[in-house]
């Protein structure tokens, strides 16, 4: 079995567009005002945001199928800005499969510092995380809503694609 780590925001649920919309209303630049945006993230009602967010390409069912394939040890590896955010994500993920591991990662810590990476797969929508992961000996898989041209990583638009991608 391969160790498979799956990001949450932008891979399982499309949580970011409403946050970015709110940032825009507050005249915050998500690219440069990272501290202010971090504050915004920590103030959000995550239970409400998760309830209002769409799952990406049937991700919840895809995780069930990945589990049933017997090919992967699956963990969710997700950056969080607050314990409230972590709790809301844990609540959402509870019971999807009986064997799911959930690892909340403080926002300013690299995902590579939270677990072993060598030979392990990380599915993430953020290339920066994938770059760090591969530098630490892991296999990066980029999740995007539409297939990307010239993607530097393996590229998927549905988590189900992983079943045939790895032995
Ligand atoms: Mg993400």
How are the SSEs ordered, and which strands pair?
Layout: E1 2-6, H1 16-25, H2 34-43, H3 46-52, H4 59-68, E2 72-80, H5 83-93, E3 101-106, E4 121-124, H6 127-135, E5 139-143, E6 154-156, H7 162-165
Parallel strand pairs: 1-2, 1-4, 2-3, 4-5, 5-6
Magnesium ion (MG) binds at residues 7, 9-11, 124-126.
In short:
This protein is α/β, with parallel strands linked by helices and 167 residues long. Helices cover 37% and strands 19% of the residues.
Architecture overview:
This protein has 167 residues and is an alpha/beta fold. It has 2 domains: 2-13 and 54-165, 3-Layer(aba) Sandwich (Rossmann fold); 16-52, no CATH class. 37% of the residues lie in helices and 19% in strands. The chain has 7 helices and 6 strands. A 6-stranded parallel β-sheet has the order 3-2-1-4-5-6, sandwiched between helices. The radius of gyration is 15 Å and the shape is globular. 29% of the residues are buried. The mean pLDDT is 94. The structure holds magnesium ion. Magnesium ion is lined by residues 7, 9-11, 124-126.
């Amino acid at each position: 079995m391969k160790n498979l780590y799956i990001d949450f925001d932008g891979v399982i649920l499309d949580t970011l567009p409403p946050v970015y919309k709110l940032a825009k209303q507050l005249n915050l630049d998500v690219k440069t005002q990272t501290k202010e945006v971090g504050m915004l993230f920590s103030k959000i009602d995550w239970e409400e945001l998760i309830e209002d967010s769409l799952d990406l390409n049937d991700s919840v069912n895809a995780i069930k199928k990945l589990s049933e394939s017997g090919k992967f040890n699956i963990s969710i590896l997700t950056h969080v800005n607050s314990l409230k955010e972590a709790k809301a994500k844990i609540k959402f993920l509870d019971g999807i499969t009986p064997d799911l591991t959930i690892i909340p990662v403080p926002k300013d810590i690299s995902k590579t510092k939270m677990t072993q990476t060598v030979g392990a797969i990380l599915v993430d929508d953020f290339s920066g995380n994938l770059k760090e992961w591969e530098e630490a000996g892991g296999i990066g898989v980029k999740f995007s809503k539409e297939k990307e041209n010239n993607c530097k990583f393996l590229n998927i638009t549905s988590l189900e694609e992983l079943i045939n991608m790895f032995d």
